[in-house]
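JOB MANIFEST
job_type = single_chain_structure
chain_count = 1
residues = 380
[input]
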Amino acid sequence: MSERKTVEEFNGIYLDLSKQPGKVKFAEAGLAWRPTGGGGGENFALDGQQFTQCQWSRGARGHEVKILLRDSGLIQLDGFEAEEFERAVKIFRLFYGLSLEHKDHALKGWNWGKGEFGKAELAFNVQNRPAFEIPYSEVSNTNLAGKNEVAVEFSLPAGGNETGTNGHMGGARTKGRKSGAGKDQLVEMRFYIPGTATKKENDEDGEDKSPDGSEGEEQHNAANLFYETLMEKAEIGEVAGDTFATFLEVLHLTPRGRFGIDMYEASFRLRGKTYDYKIPYDNIKKFMLLPKPDDLHTLITIGLDPPLRQGQTRYPFLVMQFKREEEVTIELNMTKELLEGKYKGKLNARYEQPQHTVVAQVFRGLSGKKIVQPSKDFVR
């Protein structure tokens, strides 16, 4: 780059772990990536004003440039040659005013280290070097699997048409999720976290304000603190928006246990003593209201695709059991404008009916799914 160019190009670059390479162009306005080879991938463009930080490191297909964004997202460009580092440094300095940081990964193979929460990803560091990173956009759920153990579940492609799944497409997924794997994909990782830790405050960029700690800070169980921080960073559970309705201690036959149900605009959450689940309404494929033969209970059965996971066990159906005559009174936590606008004719402001009826009607109103139930003549 002896003379400043308006556009810089690199070939053979993979975007966000895509199966298909492409050409990336850098300009003062931002970057653009286009797949090559006619594989049907989608083009991708990004405004340079979104860039906040950039890193250079070894990648799966050579060297990669990782770009952190203002909206807490990130993109990965893999496939650079080692000798292109100096050229990349000048591009980011001249076009975007950023320093391209050279990061070396830990290669010792140790399975113990330190977990650090950044703005867009969780880094597992060994001797102050990252062994691997997990983008928050890839985390679908997390649970306390034991007193000192945290299970982290990763997003799975919902279907073969999603970006990257089985190598069909090469662009970035919706919401920053990376390309799907083929036949084999990592679905869960567990961390053993003993002892206690100090909760640190974060600045506006999501980084720790006081990495060395400060006096008077309360000590917490390290596993619990890790779990709560990941819940917040990955936007699981309570940070999914306003809770429209909550049902406490609902008996579930599958998976067995009692779970609280928090209902949001686009998803619902099951809160148990050990496991929490965040389930988008789009995952609901069947919703059935079924009376039990004992004439005392009613079942709500919800078919899910993809199924709910608990370790290596999959649950394609949620089965809730309610006492048929048990009534409940509930007022929805919803503004009058929203109720009379988006949910007009679908939801009521207040319910005073048997609990299974209320749960079914609120599910139907929020998810738009049809309730399947036997006719009265059939039941009799």
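[summary]
Residues 159-176, 209-216 have pLDDT under 50 and may be disordered.
The helical segments are 85-96, 222-233, 336-340, 355-367, 376-379.
exit_status = 0
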